[in-house]
Amino acid sequence: MDNGNNDVQAELDSVEAELELVELQLSQLLQKQTDLTSRRNFLLQQLEEACEAALPSSSSSSSSCRLDLQHYDGSDFSWSADVQRHLSDSFHLSTFRKLQLRAINLTLSGRDVFVVMPTGGGKSLCYQLPAVLTQGFTLVVTPLVSLMEDQLMALKAVGVPAAMLNASSSKLENKSVLAGMVDPSSAFKLLYVTPEKIAKSKLFMSRLEKAHKAALLSRIAVDEVHCCSQWGHDFRSDYKLLGILKRQFPDVPLIGLTATASTSLLNDCSNILSVREPITVSSSFNRTNLYYEVRLKSSDSDAITDICSLIKNRYNQQSGIVYVFSQKDAALVSAELQKRNITAFPYHANMNPEDKTKVHRRWSSNKIQVVVATVAFGMGIDKPDVRFVIHHTISKSLENYYQESGRAGRDDKPADCIVYFGFSDVFRISSMVVMENVGQKKLHQMVNYCLSLDRCRRSLMASHFDEVWDDEDCGQMCDVCRHPTDCSEVDISTHARQLLQILECASSMDERLTPLKLVEAWLGRGPAKHRKLSHVTTLSRSSAESVVLHLLLQGYLREDFSFTPYTTHFYVKLGRKSSLLKDQSHSVSIKMRTAGGAGPQVLMFLIFLIFQLLLYVHINKAINTTKPFYEHFELIFAYFYPFSTTPPNS
Ligand SMILES: Nc1ncnc2c1ncn2[C@@H]1O[C@H](COP(=O)(O)OP(=O)(O)OP(=O)(O)O)[C@@H](O)[C@H]1O
Ligand SMILES: [Mg+2]
Ligand SMILES: [Zn+2]
């Protein structure tokens, strides 16, 4: 009987291993299909453009559709003169950015429009400008109070009247706004509300109906429209109820705006909002002025030291944001920055609203240099001259990273987006997103972005946003393109088998290993019983961590969680592909830095640094300054550090 069971078990193992192999081949084929499809689309687009250039009066349906849209880029509408006048008189801007005019003309024609433009691309103008030249007011739905405040501040600065309603509005404010909604001589052209107002306040909805009857509800703008869909990265349940607006007021044009939405996500949004056949105006995700960089984080304290040094030197006197994982980190990191005389303040969801507003205002007026924030300081924060956005911890998805880092350089001048990538952070975030739909998958895409050694950071974003990308277009504005590392394909099958052996041994001892304990055991450290589990690897800690992460992304390892009332514990287990490694002919490979590849460069750099240091000491003696020694070192380091995009001011 036992023998029979053993046979069945053996066959089951072999069938499962074969299935895994087929799955692997399938995933490779799917990847190839994706690459080929995007190449085909690119070529088709080129062909179509060439045909159109040759035949300007072509009557094919796609080109006539494009011509229709091109018509909305023009200035021969009855409102065109007013649009130009308000652009300069009300908003003090000289020209439109790409696709703004098209979106404005479409919404002024009464069409329902979805606008997809990069963060900082200038989406707000697409509804703010039509608002000032239309009778009545535009209702703007935004997900966050901080976002409303920011918009109101900017509108106040240019003298466009606007109002807002949210949970913290006083009774008096509520009363005056509700009265203003049905008053033809009302003092506001834009009314900002949170989605809760629409979902939960009957009084507000009845007032909206009255405004509509009096022809005063001129337009509905839904900012951050991706929040409607639970497939997006920032789903808000109250956004799901916004469909009521278009059902109640079908003749009022709706404009939805977002920086991150795929076609399928927008389809979902249009269903939720009850918008039939919206026209989508979308431009490339690419922000050419942003420099993307990933730095390895060996420990939190090292990262903080590095961040302090960057802010004091490279970004001396310049405005920026440091994003952190938790409220505790916000307090801790800002305290560390303050210790170094940097005016940094924390910002997180648990602060009282007045404190949040105060930090936001003081930062906007450059009285605070750095906001150390959780993602609560997010969407819609619009300060033009943010020169750096540093992530002390990785974001939970690439969409989130794109949006958070997109706070930088909104004035189109160069700005840096640096993310510190730490091994243990991956698992901190993993336990946070475990309950989310596809949370793990999205986190893995972010990890892949950080792990990549040889793919342009922009190209990874492009494939994420379904865009065809040519690496040349990066213009060396990412660390991979600017400082290519010598790396090659390395077979890590032996490493993978050693890790599997550790996990199997631990499991036979009824032990579960956290990622940290797994790496420690592999490095021959930690408790004695763990050290005996397998061969000790000769890899460095960072390479060992990188191998573990790659195996996790590729499915040879997987995450396992256990919940307590207070916390979520995280362990590593054998992944679905692990059985493939039982077959000795199966191999796994990853890109790794070529050992010694950067050696000569590093040596040259060190010699150069020592030379500069000696020179400094010499000059110091000559001018007899009392500045502490390490400050000079920081200064030299910041100036000659090879990733710098903007030379330090001092
Ligand atoms: N035509 C223009 N010319 C110059 N500056 C502009 C123009 N349009 C918008 N801007 C500026 O660009 C900045 C970003 O605009 P906005 O806040 O509308 O971005 P956004 O697309 O909504 O970004 P996010 O996705 O982060 O909300 C603002 O400071 C705005 O004043
Ligand atoms: Mg915006
Ligand atoms: Zn690049």
Helix content: 40-55%
CATH architectural grouping of the largest domain: 3-Layer(aba) Sandwich
Mean pLDDT across every amino acid position? 85
- Structural Rg: 28 Å
Q: Main sheet, how many strands, which sense, barrel?
A: 7 strands, parallel
Strands of the widest sheet, in order across it, are: 3-4-2-5-6-1-7
Shape: globular
Q: At the first level of CATH, what is the class of the largest domain?
A: Alpha Beta
Task: List the ions, cofactors and other small molecules found in this model.
Answer: adenosine-5'-triphosphate, magnesium ion, zinc ion
Protein name: ATP-dependent DNA helicase
Subcellular location: Nucleus
Keywords: Acetylation, ATP-binding, Coiled coil, DNA-binding, Helicase, Hydrolase, Isomerase, Membrane, Metal-binding, Nucleotide-binding, Nucleus, Phosphoprotein, Transmembrane, Transmembrane helix, Zinc
Pfam families: DEAD, Helicase_C, RecQ_Zn_bind
How would you sum up this structure, described in words?
The chain has 650 residues and is of the alpha/beta class. The protein folds into 5 domains: 60 residues; 205 residues, P-loop containing nucleotide triphosphate hydrolases (Rossmann fold), CATH 3.40.50.300; 149 residues, P-loop containing nucleotide triphosphate hydrolases (Rossmann fold); 103 residues, Winged helix-like DNA-binding domain superfamily/Winged helix DNA-binding domain (Arc Repressor Mutant, subunit A); 45 residues, no CATH class. A 7-stranded parallel β-sheet has the order 3-4-2-5-6-1-7. A 6-stranded parallel β-sheet has the order 8-13-12-9-11-10. Helix 15 links the parallel strand 12 and strand 13. It is globular, with a radius of gyration of 28 Å. The C terminus is likely disordered. The structure holds adenosine-5'-triphosphate, magnesium ion and zinc ion. Zinc ion binds next to helix 18 and helix 19. Magnesium ion binds next to loops.
